[in-house]
Amino acid sequence: MKIVACYSFKGGVGKTAAAVNLAYRAAQSGQRTLLIDLDPQGASSFYFRVRPEAGSKWKKQTLEQTDALMGQIRESDYSNLDLIPAQRSLRNLDILLKQTDSRETVLRRLLKKISQDYDLILLDCPPSVSRLAENIFVAADLILVPVIPTPLSERTYDQLVRFFKDKDYDRKKLLPFFSMVDARKQLHRDTALGMRQRYKRILRHAIPYSTDVERMGVHRAPLDLFARGRQANRAYLALWEEVELQLEGIG
Ligand SMILES: Nc1ncnc2c1ncn2[C@@H]1O[C@H](COP(=O)(O)OP(=O)(O)O)[C@@H](O)[C@H]1O
Ligand SMILES: [Mg+2]
What we know:
251 residues, alpha/beta, Rossmann fold, binds adenosine-5'-diphosphate, binds magnesium ion, P-loop_NTPase, ParA family protein, AAA_dom, DNA_Partitioning_ATPase
């Protein structure tokens, strides 16, 4: 079982759009996939039309007992794809994580325990820099980081890399890709080029800026279901193939 996180310090960069389309793609290709919506705003749960059971909550128990977490798993409308939908109590997850003794390893240990049921666990992350983020950095085998090719997003990525260096996290896990790319913009082209020279691991395929992605909110579905042959959908499919290759390289 592999764990892939969609993460960035920044909000609104395409983490959720990637998590939803990649999770759907992985499930379609036959991988038993679990998407965990860790963002209390619940965007990926919204796209997949999955709600938490009334009264269910993330509590200390959820972090310690596999059963409590498994109880939150919901089926989606699609084969091979389950979800742990977001809920308001996720706002307290950081505090809960701070109350546990095992610091950054809680999430990894927890997820490893449900590994027999899934081939892939995808984490749709909130833009946090807290204990939760550190748990995500330890838990994930790969961390997909959407980067809009502008100077500010480049700077955010530089900061993430520096954070990994300072804290001695495994930098090989970081897998950036360009998101919301407008190829007509000279700035996007120049920034992307400069970053590719500095960071060899940036994924080759980029996600274009596309109204189709915005329309996911209208259809409440991944692109493949309403924009199959379109550029943005093809970009996510190609991106997923690249990610899969990277996953194969991990033991
Ligand atoms: N490639 C894209 N082209 C156009 N709009 C996009 C694209 N990716 C995301 N968006 C839109 O931008 C907003 C933020 O995207 P989202 O995936 O929710 O970001 P995050 O999860 O990083 O906060 C949403 O309204 C979404 O529809
Ligand atoms: Mg999001």
